[in-house]
Write a structure and sequence with these properties.
4 copies of one chain form a homotetramer.
Chain A (H helix, E strand, L loop, with lengths): L17 H14 L1 H13 L6 E6 L3 H12 L3 E6 L7 H11 L3 E2 L6 H13 L4 E4 L3 H8 L10 E4 L2 H12 L6 E4 L4 H24 L7 E5 L3 H12 L3 E5 L3 H9 L3 E2 L2 H4 L5 E4 L9 H4 L6 E5 L9 H7 L5 E4 L2 E6 L2 E6 L5 H4 L6 H21 L6 E3 L3 H14 L9 H6 L5
Parallel strand pairs in A: 1-2, 1-4, 2-3, 4-5, 5-6, 6-15, 7-8, 7-10, 8-9, 10-11, 11-14
Antiparallel strand pairs in A: 12-13, 13-14
Helix pairs in contact in A: 1-3, 1-4, 2-3, 2-15, 3-15, 8-9, 8-15, 15-16
């Protein structure tokens, strides 16, 4: 742990990294043009004046720009990591040193540190929570129930978190309103599909340097993130096989020209396997046993549960060998099985996460959601709330404008035609 | 009008065409494997025993198979056309001669015949209506109000119709329940995207024989049908420009690598323009005036309102010349503007409509929707009703099975994980 | 046979078709902008003044424009068909009636008529021959040897023909120079890849109306035409399998993401099979026996030898049934095998052949090759001659200009750099 | 410079890196299955027994496996770098420490070191040279002419080198035979297209983490490498613009659906520019001045001459700022221009170069070419020699087999048909 040269509380790896972190924050900022506009409005109108916000998000250059925007809108912000392997230590250091934002996150931290950092973020006594996987909400509702009363609301960034929150809400357990930013069109259509699509393959390439052209790539899961991965793998020349439990999605995959089959049928055919389902044990003993020598496995889902390392350890002839810095090699009955980044989310563990221009969209929606919670002042009912369609249109229009793109507007006559019986 | 050799009422072009029609019905049947299965169940269980059904649908080989399935399920069916140009006269003849189903439809019929055929279908005193554009429902609610009482419910096949129905429902005007088959995932994801995508380009090629590779194709509208057209045009090597009024959709189009701009900016760049918006006057005077010599215009939307022929006639130097059997050439200030099939829906007017295997999905959902209306027996409330998600899964699973594709099923542990707080 | 209303010799189907033929010739002309420019030069400079030209080409609207350009350059032209099924009878009629060009071609003519038409074209005593499959050259070197002396040279349009000619040249049998237009880059890169790619699928769709999305399409042959077909099938959403005997090409196909396997392995997997190899019996008994019920077979190669109808007839339970006008259905051990257009080249037999804008490139090269033969005046040695690279550049530049595209030119310094040791 | 712990001559960065280097060599070996087979034959037959080989190649894990195969075939090998920025220091260290192969290469070496390392490789007194850019050949023909007599022949890996060698040969200056491995189909079709395509984008992503989807990417040069880059950028969702001086290639690009225009027209439209032409000053003052704020420039060509840093320095308001470790930012009239890796070949300077499985093809051809030179024993004439077509077929077949792919073989009857006049 570094000794901070500032007076603010923090736990980051080392301030000697902060120079690089600052460069990366500024570089990301260039591509976050919608957030730039929102930040300017925040500076002017101070919609978060004095509000305490605790965020449990991937600590990346893009998140840094979101934190800075909230801070500039008047918020008192604290940040911890939503994944032990995704923290960019240089960014964390710069956020503390250069932007006076408390950060509790060190890449590779163990489970204890991970939870102590969540506790540190909650010690900030948040009025608004921001989650990427519902960990702050989860801990607040179990170990820190007394603090629930202060919370006006929260936001949730990812599918996995929304599933948890909806389950809580269905059970009547969720005690404050949470805006499901994940379900904003500008989030899930873009971030999941284009962000995950590119950055997942980017992570695999950085870790393995494999050629994708002509390679058999199995994508397990064909939700919005999975189809992004499948589309990009096809665009890179791979022969893509899709496995999916939902029949409609499976049929969609087929209509896009993908091979579609069960994971068991795909196991002996694939050279690279990418899980992106949200479910545990998607790849397990029965699949490992059938794989070709040299198969490479990576996970693009939120949690590191999709590839069963337990099963792999149980059937391997010994402990894994480090084949490359981010690749573990297991010997299974004489054939090698390679796991990238220990099955953790590969675009963050082996690459730089979603590109800034796509995070711009969901973080613009995040910033507007935080502002809406602040302005609602606790009047919204507990439960999972959608982002308004108008917010989606606004964010998208700002993004298009930043790309120099102008679109048509319906005439009054056209509007009327589309509602003919009114 | 042909003299029927059968005793049933009908108005079709001529029974000398029926041999070819029968072949086409049988050919389509081969690709409609889900409907085949449903038909077998219908034959066994007679869920429509004695129910009168009037259908106003495109009279094609695929529709013929749907009619036959309903008939075999016990229904008393009558059919008219939902578009004056889409009728396949040979299919209509065979339906009457070989399958004893009353049909009132002749390709190219004028407006009066079109409506008299709708009236003939309503003279059948339907208990269930089936629409593709809400014309039966529209006429029932205006000119035949006295017959509304008999109607148990209806189905609607297309986006345009659902928009009309929702407007009616919003105004409290809709008097019986209508199942929006269009909104079934197995309908709108597949039929709109893959059916319209392929058949629209097919229609344009049959009419014009133009090379798509390297050609500037402007797609106006990026809904589910528009993105199908854009994707297929790109797959055919065209340089595709997308115009769209919804900002989120416009941004999606850009993220797929398309050029995105306003129609006015696209007008001087495009070589082929395809409207697929649902709105009127999408291409109009201001666009025509800017187009290159030889521009080709086609409409893939339901109604022939998207390209303003009124404007074109107003600015052309004279009446249009027939450049090819399905192509009218207007002279606008010395440059030629070509309109395919007079702006009517091009995949039906110039090609054979959606391929049977994609219609299989929506017509499977149609058949199940009709059965559900019959079994509900009038207990469902007036309004627009969704197709149940389970129906979607069933239809998709049957389709996958017909393709020889098996998919995974979630284990109990995985199901539990995805609902962690239960 | 029609009685000509003109005084010129001809054998065409009927002049009542000529009006439509004229429209189609004019429509094609719009897309043949390079040929338009060459024709203008020909009119001015008369490079073919008094030269007799016999052409054995597909009798289509595009060929008509080539013939007209040669005629306008001073040539005395006669035309017969290079394939009995590819003749557009309306175009043939218009060429005779409206353009005074002798044509001997009727769609569907039998073998005797086919060869008598070739003889009629040779009765024209050509000084220059134009072939698409080397039939004129073949007959001249076997049955009409005495006329060889008059021939200054010839042109050959297709791969199959060039293979025959090179074999003749290798044996010392070829008696005059032939320009292999097929090997011009502007021919084989564009016509084979983009022309065949689009028009082959177009032909299959017109004949069968099948959905390509999600369908298993087997492309046999991955030469320049085969890869065009494979690329377009992929672009249409098909799951494409490639079969190829050349290892380098097979590897290329794999690197593009296609499944690659032997024809025997593909036989039970495919739903549509397309041969495009130039070789005979590519699909034969051993493959037919393994195919799924309903398999559809089409040929995109020059001759109707790639699908063995002999084998199919031998193993079928009876004669084929006409499933659709252009589709024959064979019953093979209880499963149906469908052959499109009796295995003849499907883009001509079931669609309108290559689009005009791609034929523009090879026919521009044809016109320039004919002019070069005329100007060489018999000084060129017998054998197969290449089209000069400068001709390719000129044709391509004219085409780009017609598309409104300007490209860069190397500076002198860049030219020097690329030849550093000079 | 590291002190070697072995007795062999070398100049590498440090042996503490060798452990990682060994892992990367072994990892690459897994994907180099054709080279593995050749190596086994080499071990058995010792075709290079006692032959001195000097290689000037990118010092990467793949090259290491080629060197090891040659060594195992009996050769006495020395290696230096063909590009000062492409050396993988860990691989270099392992080659010396673990494989006893002399290496002279340090990443980032200055020009003097670069040439002194070439001299060290030539001090090895090669009988066979291996080049990637013709530097060994160049120096031998200028500064070390006395040693030319010993040389049996050489190999050349890249387009740029072949251009230099052909110019030398045309001038009668080339004094020994060089096998142009670059022109082997298995090299240029695969390495240039698929290797460069993937690794160039990989390098840009590692350096910048930009999202490619929806971004305007300008690819300058549409040779085999350029089209690989353009294809992959399109596959990643970019809107790709192609600039090309050859009209036929430009037209091909257009037929693939790319926007095609001059570099000057593209300058204000692009967000990322990638040069891959082989020519100098492809991007220069006139282009920089028109670019958007934030434009990113990278070079995928062999030499760092394609982006004129001289012009950029001349018009920038000051020296470049390091925006990110591999990105320099120039201020040009108030807009930022970013240059990746100082314009050096980006796939090596910012990523790990071509993936091993594609290098497997060209390095298999390299190994076979070296063996053929050794067996020819100086009897081949000076000049640039092609790789035999049979070698291409053999390499491709081995590669297909390693992928588990079997292909068809022509029957005798088919062979005869394809040569009908024999």
């Amino acid at each position: 742990m570094a000794t901070s040269t500032t007076s603010i509380a923090s736990d980051v790896k080392g301030f000697e990294l902060a120079d690089l972190g600052k460069k990366r924050i500024e570089w990301a900022n260039q591509s976050m043009k919608v957030l730039q506009i929102i930040r300017k409005e925040f500076i002017k109108n101070q919609p978060l004046k004095g509000i305490r916000v605790s965020a449990c998000l991937h600590v990346t250059a893009e998140t840094a720009n979101l934190m800075i925007a909230l801070r500039d809108g008047g918020a008192d912000v604290a940040l911890c990591a939503s994944n032990p392997l995704s923290t960019q230590d240089d960014v964390a250091a710069s956020l503390v040193r250069d932007y006076n934002i408390p950060v509790f996150a060190i890449k590779g931290e163990d489970n204890d540190s991970y939870y102590s950092h969540i506790m540190a973020a909650l010690d900030h006594k948040p009025q608004i929570t921001m989650d990427d996987g519902a960990d702050l909400v989860g801990v607040l509702h179990t170990k820190r129930k007394t603090e629930l009363a202060d919370v006006l609301g929260g936001t949730e960034e990812t599918t996995t978190g929304v599933i948890r929150l909806k389950a809580m809400a269905a059970d009547g357990a969720l005690r404050f309103p949470v805006v499901a930013v994940n379900e904003a069109q500008t989030k899930h259509l873009f971030d999941n599909r284009y962000g995950t699509g590119q950055s997942t393959l980017d992570g695999i390439l950085r870790a393995t340097n494999l050629l994708l052209a002509g390679r058999a790539v199995v994508v397990l899961g064909y939700g919005s993130a999975g189809r992004g991965v499948a589309q990009r793998a096809k665009g890179a020349g791979a022969a893509v096989i899709v496995c999916e439990v939902d029949a409609v999605r499976a049929l969609e995959a087929r209509m896009e020209g993908f091979e579609v089959m069960s994971a068991l049928a795909a196991a002996p055919l694939g050279e690279i396997f990418i899980t992106v389902t949200g479910a545990p044990d998607v790849l397990r003993r029965e699949h490992f046993e059938l794989m070709r020598d040299g198969a490479v496995l990576a996970n693009a889902g939120h949690f590191d549960v999709e590839i069963s390392l337990t099963d792999l350890a149980a059937i391997a002839s010994g402990p894994p060998r480090e084949a490359l810095p981010l690749v573990d090699e297991y010997d299974v009955d004489g054939h090698r099985v390679h796991v990238v980044a220990k099955g953790r989310v590969v675009n963050l563990a082996a690459a730089a996460g979603h590109p800034a221009s796509v995070m711009d969209l969901s973080f613009a929606a995040q910033a507007l959601a935080v502002a809406s919670i602040a302005s609602a002042g606790g009047e919204r009912a507990p439960g999972v709330h959608a982002v308004a369609a108008a917010v989606d249109q606004e964010v998208a229009l700002l993004k298009l404008a930043s790309l120099g793109i102008e679109i048509d507007v319906l005439s009054d006559a056209q509007e009327r035609y589309l509602r003919p019986f009114r």
